[in-house]
Design brief:
The structure is a homotetramer of 365-residue chains.
Chain A (H helix, E strand, L loop, with lengths): L8 E6 L4 H11 L4 E6 L7 H4 L13 H6 L6 E4 L6 H10 L3 E4 L9 H8 L6 H4 L3 E2 L2 H9 L3 E3 L3 H15 L9 E7 L14 H4 L4 E3 L6 H13 L5 E7 L6 E7 L7 H12 L9 E3 L28 E8 L4 E8 L3 H15 L14
């Protein structure tokens, strides 16, 4: 495909000033097929002031109007905007031939009513919902390959989906009670707008529980899980911010339809995602032995943010509380990469017919 | 009571080199009724090297033998030792008239078999179990008042108990499924022995899930909850270490026997623990309004470690996910104070007939 | 003195919403001679929302006007206000008989011109400067005892002064070149106003150097050092924020007028401040041996924030680079306690003739 | 050069279990010219347990003996070993035709006596010192291009050198007094061996000053600066660990031979290193304006670890304290990348005639 030649792609990033927009620019700078990156910003603001880590990259902000003027020459447009903007602006870019990957929630619900129920506003482009594909690449790859419009999943949602899909797809989960999911996110997940509750002196050494009455990624999960299993699935979704800037550490506690031991379940996950990078490059099963050399219990046998932050990987581990019959899944991702910008590029790669791992092969620090 | 005169009490701290032992010494130094503190250590080691925060206190380590020789003149002996030591040594101090507060697990189970099932060793002094009182001061005050031997609860356990007691005591909790409890502890909870998994460069920016197959405080909770409610209660207890040195941030998700709104439940907690310090000095209900001045959702309405670390307080808040019928309790404590040394002193105060808050009135930093 | 009876003192805290005001309230709540605390705030705002750690204390905000109306019945008024406010309002409280301790910079310079040179505004009450005493309690105790108006030192300044005073007072320092001082402060030192640069996701894992062209505590130090030594002393003062909420870790590198070894200098500091709490209760010299049991170099022989955060102590250690003839002083304090609210109470205690350590005896966590 | 074809290079990493060895493996995995990576370890130990971030990479440890057997087929051998090992083993690999990049201190001093003076042991291969090139790529590029043996600089040293070279090379620095350098390093810089002082609960929220009597990178700097300027240069070098896992935040305070303003000096640095990536790809000058849009002083105008951690970049900024005539340089690097593994690969690239930036182009997170 000629337009995918080395450094040939032209890409817009609507909403380039936040953490997700910045991370997308960083990853696109290292993408071998991307040649032009146009991030947008509203006000003046220099790029290097906003994203000091990208000093030297030569990137500069354009306005949305300037980007729209060039729409006809863009291959891909990413939206890193608050809910409600992409659904108004995506159509224009699609018409002019660009692929759109929306990192906001605007196209995550197939039904406009579901969107409105969760986000509290009428959907502006319900006609586009039908062609939007929910971008969990590992599970929707074929549909993404044919799509022009990808709805990138929420950072919590994709972590939960990758962690639970093997069990749900096999019908192993007892969905009689809500699936219990607890996720701790880095503070970058709360955005760049200064708030007292998110100042360093406030969060440092603490955890900040929020949205206990129900986080908006709960219904997003329920919608996807229903599509995956063909049955209604309730999710008890719990969120907080931890004392770290990046990463989602998620644990799901499930009752299975019948008992399976730890090794058996690890085997199931290996079959589903492949061992090493053989099948799914970005999803890795952590199956470290529970006992160390001296037959002592080991401390670090479950996945850990250290293994993924800075990368597009999702690490998954699990254990089983035999006494109470509860299976526990631990899944970790970088909320800004696999949870946002990395997945978005992975989806772009698939949609454009490129090698899915292009620009995304870095391991975690 | 003459022996409780200002600075008259003589106190031993068996196991004075760890974080709990150090914290106990720190609090005892500020206790108006305590005059002599004798912490024990095995090797040489200077006190100020081990506990640099207590530089200037004049405290020095003695050996256990030296402490035992003075047993007849001790008013109280605290055990901050690994499981298995207090059950061998406590008897001697009790015989000579000292009160014993054991911060290890040795006297937490009324039945020696239950102890053995959880801790994997035969109990050495089963005859003492009958008179040991489980030291959740707020719920066992009268029994502690008459006891010579207090089994101080585990740090996780006491946080969970204080958080759930009002609902359990009123029979509001549907115990048909295990109670789901997730708790994140500071790294001081893992002790002072150097381990790679707990080095700063490893834990910083991560969370360390552990004991997913079942933490030992689970059975401790089940034992107490059964005593409290008169019925079997299963607990699904999940633990991890967070990127902070001190504190337990605990969340319990429950189904109630019938629906209660947030305000109604906050009222129940206020009735149970009192408002302000009126009834229970150390348990405070956080009932901040969910909306701020501009009718915006507020970010910090649930309890937070900032409110309790450095103090003997437990802060409790809650919310209700009406859509899924799940009530969520958030309880936070300082794992080394309310979760260990502070409770131990509170129990000492009660057992000796002193004002319960003596030496424990500091607010969190 | 009858008015200093148990819980008899009435105290105002002008500017009670910031970190310093909150910390002052926290310490005053534990002060045995203080009975009434009146913190002021401008807007509505509940006290427990602003200072969740003081939940249950019963404190409530009043307006400055309400406080002023009660001025005649106040024993002490603390100002925790931005520069420029205390110099306008302090006079009124002094007239009505209250002592004033100003934690802002308004009364730190004896000369109104010096104040204007550093803070860029004309001094509003130059007539009060003559009676203001600079509140380094350890060095100005006798003057504070007789004063009505104490200018509490800056947090950086007091840490530097306590760290260097023994050498300066003995004329050991070669003042031919500026004294080189580097200090890292917690983020609470930057105040509560939300700023992007101080958000958790920004500061976490980094350091934030600032005011390299000259911090305002530099001239404050030069003024005091000149008064102490009788000679001009230049200070090269360097500041940054570290990845912690509280505490100042300060290092000064000096050339002495002649060589002194580590032990000799430690002896000098012991003589100056006393060993243990014998002479100066709140200043402790850390003189741990440099080699451990196995003759290995020890890692933690210099003072460390862990030893002081949460307390009114200043820990001081030192070393000597013999090859280059440079003496290095390390001094650590809690920026909100010894660096602000604790010193302010210490000064109040002295000015009112109370035991200087009242309400301040807690050791660091 | 045929052997440098895509994925053709075979590389050994002696000492693959520490943080530096792991980081080297991580970067080599992303290097387009490297096909085989052989990290060594002493004991059993699985690679994924030691470096969970490299799960899925397929790397496995070999023993040093196994590596030595393959020496004839290796293109490059990196030493990530404690001081004293590379000087014994490097010769063998050189003889068999491999390039050697030593990340330890063994070949950093041209004179064996200087090595012995600093590291306390006799040099085992003094004959190799003559051909070893000190690997600050930016300043020694031509010599590295012709060398077989590169002595990779210490992490502190390279940060200081890049920060000061423009001034020193131009003879702007008044070397009459020791150059004052203060550097804060992440805890990964202290290695993986568990030590109590470096446990999370100890370092979190503190700083750990060490080696105040003189750090070993001081003489390393003095040796290089003397070579650079042709004159003796004394360095007052101060080190500590901060509450972060990675990165060096370094500040140097200098007196110049005559006064230069901030802008003038920034211009000098731009000339020396180039703007953007034009001249030196990995050294970037941060020249943000000191005032923001509303003419307010800006908080974040100096380099910050956020800008470099995870990358091979060094960011440099500066300011001038005109009142005291002191110029201040701030330089930041990732201690494990530009300070170790990244520089080592950069040197490998140069020595093998590859594009210097291969495998190193990632921006900071």
């Amino acid at each position: 495909m000629s337009r995918h030649d080395l450094k040939a792609l032209r890409v817009g990033v609507v909403g380039g000033t936040g953490y997700t927009g910045g991370e997308l620019c960083r990853l696109l700078l290292g993408h071998p097929a991307v040649g032009t990156i146009l991030p947008t910003a509203r006000g003046a603001g220099s790029f290097a002031t906003t994203h000091p880590n990208l000093l030297g990259s030569g990137l500069e902000f354009v306005t949305v109007d300037e980007l729209t003027e060039q729409a006809g020459e863009l291959d891909v447009v990413f939206f890193c905007t608050p809910s409600g903007q992409a659904m108004r602006a995506a159509g224009r870019f699609l018409e002019l031939g660009a692929h759109v990957v929306d990192l906001s929630a605007d196209f995550r619900f197939p039904s406009p009513d579901d969107y409105e129920a969760v986000y509290g506003k009428r959907h502006a482009s319900p006609e586009l919902l039908a062609e939007a594909v929910y971008g969990v690449t590992e599970l929707n790859r074929e549909r993404i390959r044919k799509s022009r419009l990808v709805a990138n999943p929420g950072c919590y949602a994709i972590t939960a989906i990758l962690g639970l899909a093997p069990l749900l797809a096999h019908g192993f989960v007892d969905a009689g009670a809500p699936l219990s999911i607890h996720a701790v996110n880095g503070t970058s997940g709360a955005g760049v707008t200064p708030k007292k509750a998110l100042m360093h002196a406030e969060v440092s050494n603490a955890m900040l529980a929020y949205s206990l009455e129900g986080h908006r990624h709960g219904p997003e999960l329920e919608t996807f899980f229903r599509a995956l299993t063909g049955e209604p699935v309730e999710v008890d979704f719990n969120t907080s911010h931890g004392n770290f800037a990046r990463g989602i550490h998620l644990q799901a506690n499930l009752r299975l339809t019948r008992e399976h031991g730890r090794d058996e379940l690890l085997g199931l996950y290996h079959d589903f995602y492949g061992a090493g990078h053989q099948k799914e490059h970005f999803v890795l099963v952590v199956d470290l032995p529970k006992l160390g050399e001296l037959n002592e219990k080991r401390y670090e046998i479950y996945p850990n943010l250290r293994g993924v932050v800075g990368s597009n990987f999702c690490h998954i581990g699990l254990d089983h509380d035999a006494r109470r019959g509860i299976t526990k899944i631990v899944a970790v991702t970088d909320n800004l990469i696999k949870g946002a910008a990395g997945s978005a590029i992975q989806n772009m790669n698939v949609a454009l017919g490129l090698d899915e791992t292009l620009g995304l092969r870095s391991y975690a620090l």
